[in-house]
Amino acid sequence: MWFLQIDILIRILTGTVILAVASGIAGKFGRQSSVPKWIVLFDLLVIFYVSKRLLVFYVGYTLVTFALVRFIRIVKRGRKPLFLLCCIACAVPLLYTRTAAYLDFLPYGLSMVGIAYNMLKAIDAVYFSYYTEKKIPLLTYANFMLFVPVFTAGPIFRYRDFEKSMAKPEPITSALVERSVKRLIRGMFKKIVAAAVAVQIFDFLLAAVPHWYISLALMALSYLILYLDMAGYADMAIAIGGLMGIKVPENFKHPLKAASFTQFWRNWHVSLSDWIKEHIFVLLNGKKLSRQVAAAIGFGTMMFMSLWHGFTPIMAADGLFNGVLLAAENLFGLTTVDRKKSSRAYYVFRCVLTNLIFAFNTMFYTMTAAQLLGVLRGFITL
């Protein structure tokens, strides 16, 4: 994460302050909307400082995917199969990196940091161009793809939202600056302080003799570590984007209040869940789904989300685990809990159960397969 490397963070914050001042001055003359267009220069300088190879790859990837975006807008014949091929083409670098990890004979000379997130943005732009047939300017697209605050992780921007924010950036006021700085500090505290403390306790317990109470504590810490890591990064990205006048989407919406996994995934890593839900919904043209079809889509969605994180056996197991849960909720009509018709005790029980099961699920991300098996054995050790 670039935000955790002091030299890169200093450069990002310095550039952010310069852009905030420029936006503030331009706003006095009614020209603030002209400043965000040139954020891409700042983005390119940061990427160049991080890695020249990374810069070469992303300049090429941005130009190639932009050509795909333009192509799918103007093509008339065979649009549907070509649309699918364009989406697959955007995903080629990610598929390559995942495959190269297992096939030693494949060359791996390029740096592709952040490709998992940027692939989704490129595919979204292809969707936007295909369904709206609106022309996407190269400068706006370059800003969209290379926007540093969300370059290596979420939240995931959708093109239509980014374009609106670029066209009408938030005014740089003292209230915005205060709110953004506070959120930046809060995010850094989550990632640098709280997460580090949680990881130390986690490692200590992981080395202890397994018992049910240690396994339970590790499960809770696993949930906490994942939340602090992802929410802390999202806070920092939202804060830095805000200081540039760009409204970065929220990524967490009170997941503890989710009474089902269907609701939980709408509140946890919101931008990824929304991306998947929206793009599947677009393909289905808003058709009303049967429980069986909804269950199949839910299962497929969770497999996609897990394998998106990595082509490993443990990620496949994670996808299977979550996919079965989501499919079962759809099959048995348990996707929502009506708080008006249900007792408070039942609602609280469902929230606790959902988050406990998800806490178990987080161990797929924070442990190796051997460590996970040890913890599972601990649950049955009195």
Notes on the protein architecture:
There is one protein chain. The protein has 382 residues and is mostly helical. The protein is 72% helix and 0% strand. The chain contains 15 helices and no strands. It is globular. The relative contact order is 0.10.
Query: C-alpha Rg, in Å?
Result: 22 Å
Largest sheet: none
Helix content: over 70%
Secondary-structure-based class equals mainly alpha
The H-and-E topology, N to C, reads as HHHHHHHHHHHHHHH
Identify low-pLDDT runs.
none
Protein traits:
15 helices; mainly alpha; 382 residues
Write the layout of secondary structure elements.
Layout: H1 6-28, H2 39-50, H3 52-74, H4 79-100, H5 115-132, H6 138-146, H7 159-167, H8 174-206, H9 212-243, H10 261-267, H11 270-284, H12 291-309, H13 313-331, H14 344-366, H15 369-378
Helix pairs in contact: 1-2, 2-3, 2-6, 3-4, 3-5, 3-6, 4-5, 5-6, 8-9, 9-14, 9-15, 12-13
Write a short abstract of this structure.
The chain is built from 15 helices and no strands.
